[in-house]
Structures are given as structure tokens and as C-alpha cells.
Specification:
Strand order of the largest sheet: 11-12-7-13
Number of strands: 13
Helix content: 10-25%
Strand content: 35-45%
Shape: elongated
Distance between the termini: 64 Å
CATH class of the largest domain: Alpha Beta
Radius of gyration: 21 Å
Length: about 180
């Protein structure tokens, strides 16, 4: 039995969960999220929790059990409290600013980089170098954070670039001069 898959998902106060066949919908203060569960997994609502069980014990069902439980738990937690990713910009002259719904960044290129926040994602900039991404969908928050980081990933010699908060950049020694 999957250790993660067999755990029940508690439904917090203020969140309404509906199960329609293999579709699970969670509605809460931060919006509505939906996930389709594979037919190898059975979804049941019991009193104040959701339980996912395998239809049979073959390899495919076993591999999807923990994944399905985590996806359902993510939408339940997302509509209640949301998810956050924080990025830091390191480098002289590197900065970010919000212009309406668009993140405008100067990252050392000859042109500014503009990223439009998708529906349901909020981007905030503090001190021109700290970017906070919040939203109810964990995957969308992670995708936008990865997109922003990919515009100038941190480099190993000077450590300049866009990095996740708390990310450790493994530094390399530069060339040594001739003697």
C-alpha cells in the first residue's frame, strides 16, 4: 500500500469539495480548482475527508496512487491557503518592477524582459530585487517561477542572476593568472 496514497485528505473549514465521477472540484476563498483522477484510482468523500483507493493492485495503479492523492491534496490546500514561491535578483543593475499585470525586468540584456502574469497568479516585487509569486494552483506558480528564473539563471563565477530564495549557488574558482 502506498504510504502517501492511503492517507486521508482532511477538508478544511471554508472549502467545499464535490466529486463528479473522476473529477474532483475544490472551491474555497482563493478560487476554484479542478483535477481529473485516472480511472485506476477510486475517489470517495467520507464525512470531512477524501479517501483515494486503488481499483486493483497492478503496477500502473500502484504508481498512480500516491500521485493522485497528492494532486487532490494540492487543490484542496491551494484554494484554502495558496502557494508561494520567492525569487531573488542578484547583480549590479538587475532589477524588477510591476507595471499593471506585467513583470518588467532589467537583467543585463539590451532589452527589458516582460512577463505577463497568467489568470489566477499574482506577482509582487519588493525592493526591486525580490519577487513573490502566489496562487492557488501549485503547478502554475512553479511554472511561472521557473520561467522567470530561466530568463537569467544564476551563473557560477560571480553568482549573478535570478535565483530562488534560499537557493545555494555552487561557486567555481576563476582562472588563475600565469606566473
Amino acid at each position: 500500500m502506498s504510504r502517501i496514497g492511503k492517507l486521508p485528505i482532511e477538508i478544511p473549514q471554508g472549502v467545499e469539495v464535490t466529486i463528479n465521477g473522476q473529477t474532483v472540484t475544490a472551491k474555497g476563498p482563493l478560487g476554484t480548482e479542478t483535477v481529473d483522477v485516472r480511472p485506476e484510482i477510486k475517489v470517495e468523500k467520507q464525512e470531512n475527508s477524501i479517501v483515494l483507493t486503488r481499483v486493483n493492485d497492478d503496477r500502473k495503479s500502484r504508481s498512480l496512487h500516491g500521485l493522485s492523492r497528492t494532486l487532490v491534496a494540492n487543490i484542496v490546500n491551494g484554494v484554502k491557503s495558496g502557494f508561494t514561491k520567492k525569487l531573488e535578483i542578484v547583480g549590479v543593475g538587475y532589477r524588477a518592477a510591476m507595471q499593471g499585470n506585467t513583470l518588467n525586468m532589467a537583467l543585463g540584456y539590451s532589452h527589458p524582459i516582460d512577463i505577463v502574469a497568467p489568470e489566477g497568479i499574482k506577482i509582487a516585487v519588493e525592493q526591486n530585487t525580490k519577487i513573490t509569486i502566489t496562487g492557488a494552483n501549485k503547478q502554475a506558480v512553479g511554472d511561472i517561477a521557473a520561467l522567470i528564473r530561466s530568463k537569467r539563471p544564476p551563473e557560477v563565477y560571480k553568482g549573478k542572476g535570478v535565483k530562488y530564495e534560499g537557493e545555494h549557488i555552487r561557486r567555481k574558482a576563476g582562472k588563475t593568472g600565469k606566473k
